[in-house]
User: Which sequence fits this backbone?
């Protein structure tokens, strides 16, 4: 009788350990990113790993939310289409929260304020603000807010690229008159090519980056928002800004 009681107690202890282990298991998710947007997401040429502000941020959120993350490097248009179709669980890729996107996917609370900025060649004296883009050919990344903003300037001609780096290359080669993109990205490219490029005018739009989550995954969205709040409360956003945006 005592032996049976002892075995029962051991069985209960083992069961509790197993169940406890199950509750602590992390949730594995597929997170899309278009790694052509430094310093937020890009492929390190030496390590071939995806890194940047957004990657560090999501890794910090994942640690707080007990998420096991697999990053998927995908071009911008397929990224948005994939999120709308539920191909990916989430996406972090300098994604501005826009009403038309909110119809197709969920968004976390905002984590970064950005806006559009113009880059021109160093010897350009005619483009000083967005009104000067009339009659000009302007490089943009396809499907981004920069693309939308330029298309809204009557008389300006947008030239969309899948990779924004190619737009900056064409700008330096004289194939386009200007490039419009998010201000951190423009400042990054101008900083690395300061003898060839400069900014023109001020930031001319107000946008908020958010983490996209596939519709129907409200539980995941809550985990991400909870993790994001903890990250922000600990000042990690400021730390990442100093690391990636103040080089």
Assistant:
């Amino acid at each position: 009788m005592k032996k049976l009681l002892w075995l029962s107690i051991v069985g209960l202890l083992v069961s509790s350990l197993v169940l406890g282990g199950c509750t602590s298991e992390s949730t594995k998710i597929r997170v899309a990113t278009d790694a052509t947007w430094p310093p937020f997401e890009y492929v390190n040429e030496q390590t071939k790993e995806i890194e940047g502000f957004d990657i560090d941020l999501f890794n910090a959120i994942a640690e707080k939310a007990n998420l096991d993350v697999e990053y998927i490097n995908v071009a911008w248009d397929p990224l948005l289409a994939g999120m709308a179709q539920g191909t990916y669980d989430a996406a972090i890729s300098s994604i501005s929260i826009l009403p038309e996107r909110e119809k197709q996917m969920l968004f976390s609370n905002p984590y970064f304020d950005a806006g559009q900025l113009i880059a021109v060649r160093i010897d350009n004296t005619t483009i000083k603000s967005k009104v000067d883009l009339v009659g000009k050919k302007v490089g943009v990344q396809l499907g981004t807010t920069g693309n939308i903003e330029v298309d809204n300037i009557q008389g300006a001609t947008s030239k969309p690229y899948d990779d924004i780096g190619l737009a900056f290359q064409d700008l330096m080669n004289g194939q386009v008159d200007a490039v419009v993109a998010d201000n951190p990205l423009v400042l990054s490219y101008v900083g690395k090519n300061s003898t060839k490029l400069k900014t023109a005018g001020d930031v001319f739009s107000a946008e908020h980056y958010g983490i996209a989550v596939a519709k129907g995954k409200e539980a995941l969205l809550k985990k991400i928002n909870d993790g994001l709040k903890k990250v922000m409360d600990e000042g990690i956003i400021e730390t990442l800004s100093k690391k990636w945006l103040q080089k």
